[in-house]
Write a structure and sequence with these properties.
102 residues; 1 helix; mainly beta; Immunoglobulin-like; four-stranded antiparallel beta sheet; 7 strands; three-stranded antiparallel beta sheet
Length: 102
């Protein structure tokens, strides 16, 4: 007769995994450089965006860290890394997307 033992970590039962946050980048075709960030995340207590600019020389420069703003106007041509960070019950999740402003 075989004895089967299954070990279950206490943390694995109590820890609720939240989905990775997501957002959409919408261009405003009437205003070049104007984008709107649309939050598609659910069940998070706090969400903020962090935007960094990567110029033609490849250097990464902090551009904006405006948690409550959803509209951003880009004036410099290049690539922008936009990261959404969401927090719930002390756990952080983030997702990055890239936007090219020509």
């Amino acid at each position: 007769m075989a004895l089967l033992v299954i070990l279950v970590s206490e943390n694995s039962c109590l820890y609720r995994q939240f989905p990775i946050p997501d957002f959409e980048i919408q261009d405003d075709i009437t205003a070049p450089g104007l984008i709107t960030l649309i939050n598609k995340s659910e069940n998070y207590e706090y969400i903020y965006y962090d935007i960094q600019f990567r110029g033609d020389d490849g250097g990464l420069v902090e551009y904006d860290n405006a948690p409550d703003e959803q509209e951003h106007v880009f004036t410099e041509h290049g690539y922008y890394e936009i990261t959404i960070t969401a927090e719930n019950e002390g756990h952080l999740q983030s997702c990055s997307k890239y936007y090219h402003f020509e």
